[in-house]
């Protein structure tokens, strides 16, 4: 099976798996306990915090461990909102992950004013559009960094600077970016940043919200007061050890392979666009280094991107139609609709996401399989 769905999840790195197994067998104490078992487990957690902080150029105290990107996004949104006794104004974009749009919808039901910024045909937010929609009561702006479905990177530093100059909290969902591109959070200028370990070879079930020092944030979970009182609950020590190991590997192995990954991405894109009926989606100049996305243009309304995923799976190739959280649905993609695609094309997106472990031979096999599927489903197209 050829796996080309690394944006959905990455397999744990062998060193990560080994570290998790080691901690499960030897450092399984509760970090809140004051005896030796607890102290040893607490040390594991803090070493992981140090490693992740080093990856993002922040202090360890700014790291709040969570169960993943969804919880981190909820903590960012509700943590800011709960600072206010009356509903205020929040700005987001039309291409956010549901882990952002869904909690914002909850706040809208509670009387908060939510402004959703439009994007251009590549999925990018214009900083001037953000500037035009700021209000005196705007307290939070949340814009995704790397769009999981179409791969577009937002001008986060420029957007964050607009907010920083006006004292508005800026959050970015960087789940698709951390571990794949260098991220210097102070240089980026954001106040809150969400990440998820399983997107860069750590286990599923661990992530973090990075909170700029000095920013007031209300807890999302209450209880024992772990994570500096910001996120109660016994930490998953072994998973966090894996996250720390993945953060170290990102610096020593994953990020140094970026040139190879970009070469693979460009090679795959060229081969895909040589097939009839496929059209690139998202920005090419501002794009995740491991990501290629297309829409399948054809006349048969019964076939969708999910159709291609199904047939490719039968041929031993794993890809997705849209983000992993929505790939089982047949409704038009809200992201593609926001970019101007009609309902039919918005059902026909397909995403290929790569790893530095991916080979050109695998890509050749995947493209050949896709060509066979397209020829079967659209025989009227020219296949010269």
From TrEMBL:
Keywords: Aminotransferase, Iron, Iron-sulfur, Metal-binding, Pyridoxal phosphate, Transferase
Class of this enzyme: transferase
Record-linked SUPFAM superfamilies: PLP-dependent transferases
Record's catalysed reaction(s): (sulfur carrier)-H + L-cysteine = (sulfur carrier)-SH + L-alanine
Keyword Iron among UniProt keywords: yes
The protein's Enzyme Commission number: 2.8.1.7
Needed co-factor(s): pyridoxal 5'-phosphate
Gene Ontology molecular functions: cysteine desulfurase activity; iron-sulfur cluster binding; metal ion binding; transaminase activity
Limits of the Aminotransferase class V domain: 2-365
UniProt family annotation: Belongs to the class-V pyridoxal-phosphate-dependent aminotransferase family. NifS/IscS subfamily.
Subunit structure of this chain's protein: Homodimer.
Protein name: cysteine desulfurase
Species this chain originates from: Gloeomargarita lithophora Alchichica-D10
């Amino acid at each position: 099976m050829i796996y080309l769905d690394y944006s959905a999840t990455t397999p744990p790195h062998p060193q990560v798996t080994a570290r998790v197994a080691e901690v499960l067998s030897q450092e399984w104490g509760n970090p809140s306990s004051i005896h030796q078992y607890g102290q040893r487990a607490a040390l594991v957690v803090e070493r992981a915090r140090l490693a992740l902080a080093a990856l993002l150029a922040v202090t360890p105290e700014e790291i709040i461990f969570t169960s993943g990107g969804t919880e981190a996004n909820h903590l960012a949104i509700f943590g800011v909102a709960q600072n206010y006794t009356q509903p205020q104004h929040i700005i987001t974009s039309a291409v956010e992950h549901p882990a952002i749009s869904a909690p914002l919808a909850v706040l809208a039901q509670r009387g908060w004013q939510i402004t959703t910024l439009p994007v251009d045909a590549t999925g990018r937010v214009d900083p001037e559009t953000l500037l035009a929609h700021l209000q005196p009561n705007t307290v939070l702006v949340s814009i995704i960094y790397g769009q999981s479905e179409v791969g577009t990177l937002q001008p986060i530093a420029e957007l964050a600077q607009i907010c920083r100059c006006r004292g508005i909290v800026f959050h970015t969902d960087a789940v698709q970016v951390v571990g794949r591109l260098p991220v210097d959070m102070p240089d980026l200028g954001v106040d809150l940043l969400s990440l998820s370990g399983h997107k860069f070879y750590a286990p599923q079930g661990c992530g973090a919200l990075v909170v700029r020092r000095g920013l007031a944030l209300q807890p999302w979970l209450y209880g024992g007061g772990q994570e500096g009182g910001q996120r109660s609950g016994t930490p998953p020590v072994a998973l966090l050890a894996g996250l720390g190991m993945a953060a170290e590997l990102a610096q020593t192995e994953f990020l140094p392979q970026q040139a190879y990954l970009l070469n693979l991405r460009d090679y795959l894109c060229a081969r895909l666009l040589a097939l009839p009926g496929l059209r690139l989606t998202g920005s090419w100049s501002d794009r995740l280094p491991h990501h290629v996305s297309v829409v399948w243009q054809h006349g048969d309304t019964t076939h969708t991107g999910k159709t291609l995923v199904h047939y490719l799976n039968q041929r031993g190739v794993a890809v997705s139609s849209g983000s992993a959280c929505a790939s089982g649905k047949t409704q038009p993609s809200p992201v593609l609709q926001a970019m101007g695609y009609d309902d039919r094309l918005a059902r026909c997106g397909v995403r290929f996401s790569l790893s530095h472990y991916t080979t050109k031979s695998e890509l050749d096999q995947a493209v050949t399989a896709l060509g066979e599927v397209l020829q079967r489903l659209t025989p009227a197209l020219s296949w010269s």
